[in-house]
Amino acid sequence: MFFDTHCHLNFQIFDSNVDQVVKEAFKVRLKNITIPGTDILTSKKAIKIAQKFTGVYAAVGIHPHHVFEMFVNKRNKDNKIFFQLEKLVKEDKVVAIGEIGLDRHYYQKTKYSDYQINEKFIKLQKEFFIYQLELAYKYKKSLILHNRQAKDDLLKVLKENKKFLLSKRAVFHCCESDKELLDFAIKNKIFVGINGDVFYDKKKQEFVKKIPLGLLVLETDAPFLSPFKKFPNQPKNLPVIAKKIAQIKKTSLEKLAEKTTFNGKVLFDLLN
Asked: Which domains does the chain show, CATH number per domain?
């Protein structure tokens, strides 16, 4: 059995065939999928999809990229988004806040005009990040942590707000191949998410060798990061990713599947 801990079935690419995509995933021994939100709309869609299927769960949150909407509209003082997000956290099958975090990557393809990365924007990202950390702690939800080219900022925020990190209830999604991130994860019992780029990223392959099996979880990040470099990626590709990781870690596919599925259930508090 496999657990795809990060799969964007709520993205537009899957609007016309999400039922078939889930059906095909279940045929290849996937039993669990978590769908992270990136804004209010995709968070609502994640919940709607999760409520249709046994073993499928939702996360709700504002991705740091989408904080830009509040930045350009000068809505950082407006608590409407906070109110909507807190309302969604209480919905059935919501297991986490995510994906949330910090992001200094400059996105060339974006719906936002005049998109930019500056310190005012990063400051607002941090404010939203801390609010969502607090929200997860308040409702005892897990954390799906996003970091892209912002490791130092991310670790500083997490160190200063460590009280919101519940043991084994957070994951570094699509974790960068960075020793400092891994050391922090091990010290604070944070899971490490690995996906399809392990097929073609030599640095990621070496990084995977160092991740304790007890902190490893699998993810596709579909529709992105296909092991075949073909868009869209789908959750049915997770066993292929798992096989590659098993080879790298010199363990059996069965052991890796069993352990990472257990880890995913621990991460999202699904064992009871």
From this structure: 2-267 (3.20.20.140)
